[in-house]
Amino acid sequence: MQQMTGAWACLRQRLAIVAVAAALCVPALAAVDVQVLGSSLQVSPSPVLEAGRLIGPPAEIAKALGCRVTSPGEATLQIVAPARTEVRVKAGSDLLVVNGAEVRMPRMALIVSGQIVCPLRPVLDAIGAGMQWNPAAQRLSVVVPITAIRVHADEEGARVEITTPLRSQATLYRVNAPERAYVDFAGATVKLPQEFTLVSCGEVQRVRWAQFTDDPPVARVVMDLSSTGQVRWQPHPQGLGGSMVIGQLDGDEPLIERRVPFITGIDARSPDEDTTLLRIELSDLVRPKISVRSQPPTVTLKFPDAAPAATTGPVGVASPFVGAMKLSGTPGAAGAELTLQMKQLIHFELDESVSPPAVTVIFKRGRISDKRIVIDAGHGGRDSGARGNRLLEKEINLDVARQVATKLIQMGAQITLTRDGDYYVDLYDRPGLANRISADLFLSIHCNAMPTRNTGFGTETFYYHDRSMCLGAVVHDQLVKALGRKDRGLKWANFCVTRESDMPAVLVELLFLNSDVEEGLLAKPEVRTAAANALVEGLRQYVEGTGSTLETEMGM
């Protein structure tokens, strides 16, 4: 039986390879637009999307990024990145060799039209690049990260060194009112631990950076100035970033150490019974990192780049949502943390003000009947998802999704299902639908599985963006209570449907289909209905408030 199973698996793999090769050989009606450094790159054969993965020839992309590309052996591609990372791909193998270490790819490499083609993401990851896929535009954006920004300055001049591991494309701009210069890196991302450096030296007040646009990806580095002085751009000799320069430099300018911003005040007010505004005043604007916990209900704002002017609390708050708050940390040292003990969890947003610098947390009660919600039944059609002895995941997902949709419609919400039958929907099309209709919430329903039967149990929920964490906490809490199985927690994961959604989005894993006990539970209509009811209640509570008032004092 095992030999037969292995033979079928081998046959399926060979058929998949043939299908990919055929797709690459046939001219597409709309070829994929491959964008490198902000411009279209002609790549042949054009990449294809297969099972949610882009497969194509990496050689031309690597060359455009400044890598050295050779063919050291028969049917072998070697890529050497500027940082000396060596990557080898061999046709007929699913192993990617990175600096001598083997990494398994989801599909083996092939030769198509004389080019080695393979899954692109593993190769790009290995050389230090990333990728973004826009399904509506059929556009693949290859992104180069900014890995370091260093400021050297004295009273005579300043140099801002911007480093990328691969070739980059930068354009300098100069504007006034207020005076500043900035460099846009096309096809680049910036995700450094901090987001600015205070300079206050010579003509430069501050250097700051952020992701200017996500699609197409553009990273921006800004130099805030106190004069109309000329700013020059000096590219790195190999194109690996460059420097913004102002004034007269002799090469001895000291490295500017970051000055720590302070939290100077916190003000909380509730203009009405449905709204609470919590304003955190700062000496310089910094963005907090958010964490949410459902038991006990807590929202924490961590300021890794800011220090408290003084610690406080716990201090009571007159609010229908926030019970008490406490500001902790070491005065003068970065790492302030504001903990909010909640009377009830509810949807909230952050609003930032530059002048004066402040971050405002806005807790706002809404109505579920006013919301547009997309319900995603995972898998479908040729993609059955996890398999039990009797059940298929795609069928369980659809049944629960339909029940959730029906109940929410009865409550007055506007509901869209990503699929309402047994058919295949591409991964990117699911969040794409939610983005097109400007949905307020996105919920993806799945069942879990482990490689070995009866080794996994329980319920877990996943989010990608911080804005989805509160939704995940509330929905997960309701689901665990309803199903009564092991609580596997609320977790971060890089899933396409949650990553690509523009609104709060979570993916739930109800139970394990390859557990005898939990497959038996999922086979029962009353259990699937209980799961649907829990998901509906979680969505409702996230919008309207959990209503779980704490009776204990803040134990800190």
Blueprint of the fold:
Elements: H1 2-25, E1 33-36, E2 39-41, E3 48-50, E4 53-56, H2 59-64, E5 68-70, E6 76-80, E7 86-90, E8 95-98, E9 101-104, E10 110-112, E11 115-119, H3 120-127, E12 130-134, E13 139-146, E14 148-153, E15 157-163, E16 169-175, E17 180-186, E18 188-190, E19 196-201, E20 204-214, E21 217-225, E22 231-235, E23 241-247, E24 262-272, E25 275-282, E26 289-294, E27 297-303, E28 307-308, E29 312-316, E30 322-328, E31 336-342, E32 348-353, E33 358-364, E34 372-377, H4 393-410, E35 414-417, H5 429-436, E36 441-448, E37 459-463, H6 469-483, E38 487-492, H7 496-499, E39 505-512, H8 516-522, H9 525-544
Parallel strand pairs: 1-13, 13-18, 24-28, 34-35, 34-36, 36-39, 37-38
Antiparallel strand pairs: 1-2, 3-4, 4-11, 5-6, 6-7, 7-8, 8-9, 10-11, 12-13, 14-15, 15-23, 16-17, 17-21, 19-20, 20-21, 22-23, 24-25, 25-33, 26-27, 27-31, 29-30, 30-31, 32-33, 37-39
Radius of gyration: 26 Å
Across the major sheet, the strand order is 35-34-36-39-37-38
CATH fold title of the largest domain: Aminopeptidase
Give a short account of the largest sheet: 6 strands, mixed
| The CATH H-level homologous superfamily of the largest domain | Zn-dependent exopeptidases
Unreliable stretches covering 5 or more consecutive residues: 1-29, 548-556
- Tell me the number of structural domains: 4
The percent range for helix content is 10-25%
Kindly, what is the distance between the CA atoms of the first and last residues, rounded to a whole number of angstroms?
60 Å
> What CATH first level of the largest domain would be assigned?
Alpha Beta
Count of individual helical segments: 9
Output mean pLDDT. Answer: 89
